[in-house]
Amino acid sequence: MKKQGTVVRWNEAKGFGFIHGPQSNAQLFFHIRDWRGTATPAVNQRVSFEEIHVGSKGPRAMDVRPESDRATSPARAHQTTARPPPQNPHRQPRMAPLRRVAPSRQASPAWPALLLMLIWAGLLIGGIVLDRLSWLFLPAAFILNLGTFYAYWKDKYAAAKGQWRTAEDMLHGLGLLGGWPGAWFAHQILRHKSVKQAFRSVYWGTASIHVIALALWVFLPWLPIPALNP
Questions:
Q1: For 110, phi and psi rounded to 5 degrees?
Q2: How confident is the model at residue 209 (pLDDT cuts 50, 70, 90)?
Q3: In terms of Cα–Cα distance, which of 127, 208, 191, 199 is closest to 168?
Q4: All residues at 6 or more sequence positions from 63 whose CB lies less than 8 Å from its CB, including other chains
Q5: Cα dist. 75→67, 82, 179, 216 in Å?
Q6: Is 28 exposed, middle or buried (0-12, 13-18, 19+ CB in 10 A)?
Q7: What is the dihedral of CA 189, 193, 204, 139, to 10 degrees?
Q8: Taking a C-beta distance cutoff of 8 angstroms, is the pair 124, 138 a contact?
Q9: Averaged over 106-112, what is the pLDDT?
Q10: Domains in the chain with CATH codes
Q11: CB–CB of 192/105 below 8 Å?
Q12: Torsion (CA) 148, 154, 156, 158 in degrees, nearest 10
């Protein structure tokens, strides 16, 4: 069921905001991909939306539309049809103005990340088989990626609540240590840090450096390795 409300906060750089409606108990989060207007949202703008609840994240607004974009009422449409304006046969038809389309997040293909994860997992297993890595690297990598996913979730929650944020350098540091697969799943599932191009460029840099360093460690025997037997 459609509800009405007012945009009370809008972050242009990050592409999200909040709506307050008289029929809702809390402010509703909405993302730019859920916006259906021809221009970007503005504070104090009247909108209509559909309210949903996703787990424990609180209410969320979907299919958000500005009130000015509502369809013309049937009575007014009938009046316009009954009394058309006079036409000038010598007048050239006017071109319809181009509509400004609200920016939306373009989904990047998943196969490069999945392929890099497959290579990364193969390097871990290969390093264990070749005695270049301890088998403890497998559970350690799993725990590190769970921790990285949690760090992204905590940062997204803090952004929605206006609380203290996690530094981007810390998120990149977790990715460089080997938590970049967990960060990728956070981008896809949580939709966090998935739009900012500068952040994603650094993210792919840390992922590439980690995989290259792991490959050098596993396959180049001249690199120093601690003695397995004292």
A1: -90, -20
A2: very high
A3: 199
A4: 34, 36, 49, 50
A5: 18, 11, 60, 74
A6: buried
A7: -50
A8: yes
A9: 73
A10: 2-68 (2.40.50.140), 111-219 (no CATH)
A11: no
A12: -150
141, two tokens: 């990598």
Question: Dihedral (C-alpha) 205, 209, 212, 217: value to the nearest 10 degrees?
Answer: -170
Looking at residue 92, its pLDDT comes to: 58
Q: Rounded to an integer, what distance in angstroms lies between the CA atom of residue 122 and that of residue 125?
A: 5
Task: Tell me the pLDDT tens digit for each residue of 67-87.
Answer: 875 544 444 444 444 555 556
**pLDDT tens per residue, range 31-51:** 888 888 778 888 888 888 788
The single-letter DSSP state of residue 12 is T
Query: E strands of 12-124, at which residues?
Result: 16-20, 28-31, 46-53, 59-66
Residue 46 per-residue DSSP state:
E
Q: Which amino acid is at 164?
A: W
Residue 183 to residues 39, 78, 90, 142, 180, Cα–Cα distance (Å) = 31, 55, 63, 12, 5
Residue range 102-131: mean pLDDT, rounded: 81
Contact 182, 153 (CB under 8 A): no
Positive/negative CA dihedral, 118, 119, 124, 127: positive
